Amino acid sequence: MIEVHDLAKEYHVGDHVVHALKGVTMAVAAAEFVTIVGPSGSGKSTFMHILGCLDRPSTGRYVLNGRDVSTLPADELARVRNETIGFVFQGFNLLARTSALENVELPLLYTRKGVVRAAERRDRAMSALEAVGLTDRADHHPNQLSGGQQQRVAIARALVTQPSLLLADEPTGNLDTATSHEVMEIFARLRSDRGITIVVITHERDIAAYGTRTVDFRDGLVVSDKMNAPREAAVGAGHR
Amino acid sequence: MKKLLKHPVIDTAIKALNRNRLQTGLTMLGIAVGVATVLAMMAVGAGAQRSIEQQVRAAGLNQITIRAGNWRPKLEESDEAIAHQGDARESLRHPLERLHDDVLPIAFHPEDDPMEKHDHPTARQRLGDLEAGLGSAATMTFDDAEAIREMPGVQYVAGGIHENVRVHFGEKRWFTRMHGTDVQMPSIKRAWTFTAGRFFTEREQANADEVLVLGQVVADRLFGAGTRPVGQKVTLWNQVFEIVGVMTSATWVVQPAPGDDQFDAVYMPYTTTQRLLNLSKLNDITVTAESSGDISRLSREITKLLRKRHGIGDNAPDDFTLITQATKALTTGGLPPSVARAVASNVAELEKVTLEQLALTMERASRTMTWLLAAVAAVSLLVGGIGIMNITLLSVTERTREIGLRMAVGARGRDVMRQFLFEAVVISAAGGLVGIIVGVLASIGIARMLQWSTVVSPMSVLLAFSVAAAVGIFFGWYPARKAARLDPIVALRRE
Which of B20, B182, B265, B438 would be a feasible disulfide site paired with B215, CB 3.0-4.6 Å? Predict the structure, then answer.
């Protein structure tokens, strides 16, 4: 699914050069659930942006589904983001004054396979909402939803184009513990039911335990990469 | 419509514009004022142009008036009648005139010369009206008019006798102008319309009947506004006249006014005037040419013909004055003062104005107006456009995260750009629509209140709207491109 070879990224901040990534090589197989942990400035967010085709590496190669996307032009990257990747953010990033349903429809406005008709958009958005158990909140606006519900709407939005890769950057950062576990349950279920590859960044160890594999970043390098105990155990730990 | 409003681009635009309702409204107002100004100015410009054309045509660019006597038109003429009389005596010294007088039987000696001593009761004695027959003498006859009528290129001919008269209706009386004229006069004066009745007929002219057509002003003074005095009897020179019609101006550019000699006037067949006043001459002959371009040639031909008919030697001056209506329109007014001034200031000697010069001057005046219009339009639309740029930039700044999100879920730069361009165009187009409504209303208001002619053509409405939309695209371009070039990561991080 994902193969990165010697991925490096440097930023120029004034006269300084910041080496955010210093050569990361790893692979993620299809239907894997990888959690990435690491302190601030470890390069995990930069890594995530490159995985999400929001950014290009300075050097190195990124092969997604067998295709080298590290040198694609901007419009092609947008297409990959639309068709192959679903994003979930820490701050939900829902459009205000816009219903949950319309928020979920958003990615369908930018599909390249021709215009998606309004009725079809609606149907697909509804089934995405169904996957996160929020069909009864379809007409609610974000300010009428709890944080957990908002994040579930955001997950539905990420799912609506039926991507094979779901990327989440600290999806539980703004949620309380119980809600965090609910959200992680959804990710775990999406992997097991639909075989979606999932990469989640997190600070918290018990959240990271939801992954089938946890990768530890530090100073722009992978310092540890190990398989986790089976999910059932993690669930048990979650519910204590 | 509802479905269309649900279109995502439109829906997003409406939501975005709703967010900054006040700013959006003010910007729309700016564009609306610009477009309204453009439209109103165009309407006034087109109206002025049309009213000049109408004026000149109504006054009759194809019209020639030949007046008895050889006085010259002056810019400021206080009393036409006096000028007439002074020169008319001169002309009567002409040998042919004396010869002509001698031939006539003494008893029927016409009273064309008011200075002549008559050995028969004059009009004022016979009719018992001291004012009767005080008008000018004339050197032209009905036969002259008939001869002109035969000339090729001539459309209508009307001989005229003009007097100052007092018209009585019961206790009421009104001092006005009397025009003894020809049945063809309404065809010559195309700017006439009849509010009641009709003009006199061929038969009434042939019979020299005592019928009278009143100008609007006279009818209002004698009978009150809004009445239809057709069939009523009035007294003039102690004779009873039947009113057969009331006429007024067909174009509101020329409004009937007391003392205007046209609508403050009464009209009767010239034959009636000649019979009652015992006159054989005409004060003037009005001629229209079939083509206005033919005026110069026709003027020369008529001069030649009349000189021949009046037996004027090569070195002797004309005993008539030929003027074209183009000069008359300029000297006697009728044009809006500003236009007349603009035209007059470009012409050194008004009498020598030719049609070509007049056309050139009008073109120059309207070009000046067009430039002025363009300047006002440019400034107001520039201000409106800057407003659009401002609000679109504000929108881009406020919605940076949203832009980042849209890009993250697959929007290309061009999708983002289209969205913001569309919003800019929505503001400008909505402002344009409001501006069109305001502009049309303003044009109507200007027409009503200032008595100016305004013309709102569909073309100018379309143009105003397109200009508004173009302003939106032009000034929305920079902010939209700025949005499209945002880095999604940076945009997503913006708070």
Answer: B265
Do A102 and A72 lie in a common domain? no
What CATH number has the domain bearing residue A231?
Answer: 3.40.50.300
- Which pairing describes strands A197-201 and A165-169: parallel, antiparallel, or unpaired? parallel
Mean pLDDT of A156-160: 95
Domain count, chain A: 2
Taking contacts as CB-CB distances below 8 angstroms, the residues of chain A near B15 are 97-98
Distance CA B195, CA B200 (A): 14
Residues A125, A179, single domain; the answer is no
Q: A240 CA to chain B: closest CA distance, Å?
A: 35
Residue of A110, A112, A141, A169 to mutate when probing chain B, most B C-beta within 10 A? A110
Q: Nearest-CA neighbor of B140 among B194, B187, B74, B94?
A: B94
Assembly ipTM? 0.92
Task: Give me the residue label for tokens 């119980």.
Answer: A178
Choose one of A162, A197, A219: the last residue of a domain. A162
Block means of pLDDT (10 residues each) for chain B, 495 residues, are 66 78 85 85 75 56 74 43 41 42 43 59 61 56 84 84 85 87 82 85 88 89 84 86 87 72 88 84 82 73 84 77 65 54 48 51 66 77 87 89 92 92 90 91 82 79 88 93 92 82
Q: Is residue A171 part of a domain?
A: yes
In a shared domain, residues A135 and A227: no
Task: Name residues whose C-beta falls within 8 Å of residue A179's C-beta, 6 or more positions apart in sequence.
Answer: A146, A147, A148, A151, A172
Task: Note whether residue A90 is domain-resident.
Answer: no
| DSSP code per residue over A166-190 | EEEESTTTTS-HHHHHHHHHHHHHH
Q: Rounded to the nearest 5°, which phi and psi values hold at B48? A: -60, -45
**Is there a single domain that holds both residue A16 and residue A78?**
yes
Does A38 share its domain with A58? yes
Q: Is residue A107 in a domain?
A: yes
- On whether the CB atoms of residues A62 and A27 are closer than 8 A, the answer is no
Q: A75 lies in which domain range? A: 2-84+164-239
3-state DSSP assignment of residue B367: helix
Q: Which ranges of B226-282 does DSSP label H, i.e. alpha helix? A: 270-277
Interface contact A90, partner B, CB < 8 A? no
The residue of A103, A105, A106 whose CB has the most chain B CBs within 10 angstroms, and thus the best one to mutate to test that interface, is A106
| A141 and A192 belong to one structural domain | no
Select from A162, A187, A213 the last residue of a domain.
A162
Nearest residue, CB atoms, B410 vs list A49, A107, A118: A107
- What pLDDT is recorded for position B459? 87
Q: Which residues of A touch B405 (CB under 8 A)?
A: 89, 93, 95, 106
Q: Which of B402, B410, B413 lies nearest to residue A95, judging by beta carbons?
A: B402
CB B491 within 8 A of CB B412: no
Best CA proximity match to B389, nearest among B362, B429, B418, B428: B428
- In B198-283, DSSP assigns E strands to 211-215, 233-236, 239-249, 265-269, 281-282
Identify whether residues A110 and A229 lie together within a single domain: no
- Tell me the C-alpha distance between A211 and A36, whole Å: 9
Do A6 and A79 lie in a common domain?
Answer: yes
